[in-house]
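Attaching the record inline, Q. Sequence:
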Amino acid sequence: MEDINVSKELKNDKSLFFNALKKGNLITKLSFIIMGLGCILRGQIVKGLIFLALQVSFIVYILNSGWYYLSNLPTLGKEVQRQVWNEELQIYEYKPGDNSMLILLFGVVTIFAIGAIILMYVKSVKESYNCELIRKAGNRPPTFKDDVKNLFDKNFHKTLLTLPAIGIILTVIMPLIFMILMAFTNFDKTHQPPGKLFTWVGFENFKNLFFSNSKMSGTFVKILIWTFVWAVFATFSNYLLGMILALLINKKGIKFKGFWRTIFVLTIAVPQFVTLLLMSRMFQDVGPINILLQKLGLTSQAIKFITDGTNAKIFVIIVNMWVGIPYTMLITSGILMNIPEDLYESAKIDGAGPVTAFMKITLPYMLFVTTPYLITQFVGNINNFNVIYLLTGGGPNSLNYFQAGETDLLVTWLYKLTVNEQNYSLASTIAIIIFVISATLSLIAYNRSASVQKEDTFQ
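Structure, as predicted:
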């Protein structure tokens, strides 16, 4: 009967920790104080030493610097770097102070370290109690060699996923949390540590962006509207025109299909940033295009393709079409070839014309297959830094905008605030808003699309 209970406990991994506290013997309970002790005393020496090394390392880190960063996290530092007169040397010396940025950064790191050690602590206790139960059942606990072997056998999924998971935590989640927390501070060019500390300001940056600061909020609203206008035109103009181009090339009777595809794809062969920079130079007020137009007598003065707000917005959309349509043509060409010809023949017999066939057959089929691609493109265009920055630099600048130009998107405005103005807190606030908008639109559009709701069929 005892063997049956032991077997049940071994299978119920979720209750092992609390059962160890209630039912574990002295060695197991000592593992609550010294990580890995139960494993070491029961023959799993290497595993136990690893747990013990983690505990010692964590304690050393906390005592050495972790507690300093964690304790100063609520205030982000108190002591400012200052000059102190050295009477002996008869000179002024800098006395080091706190660094708000390092406190915030390593404060986040310390919190994650605490979370990680708690997980390892629970794992250590479970492993210790697990060894006790295996001993009670009259079996030998697995050795370190057995554990390594299992990592390439039944636990191979853990081997494959552990390093990527750690990488995501270190390179994505931790920087993301650091950036989010920065939005609740006043970290800007007037609060640069260690000379000056920055502090927590709560939702002040969000208030300024939405309603408290009229110029800032006005700029935000205008740029947000333009960001959505740009994203809609940049996404759907490329999508529809690329699809129509693919239809024309694939149409029966069109000769040299490969040649036409190659001609249009040549724009992809040139790196995008080269094309954008070239277009930016060509369409300047004193650029080759304006000079040519004036010499041909088509215009009496230079057309402000880039230096006029409205013209610049139209210009970036058209250039984006030049760059993006060939990509869509390539993607849709393969999909169009897979639409059953029977559907078109049936529609033709029923009296449907080309436009009706496109609206009732081609477009629904394309949307069914390419909705995830469309969502990706739309979100990508909300954050399309390259096209805007390389073509117009966000300009033309305007006194009505707060540190932004008329063609700036939220992402290019964020860049300017960071690089030019060192307004890191406001830039972080905008980054959070961009993330919320992108994530919300992506999830809603994807979950409501036919690609998800009817993924096994197409009607």
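The domain at 206-453 is CATH 1.10.3720.10 (MetI-like fold). The radius of gyration is 32 Å.

More tomorrow.
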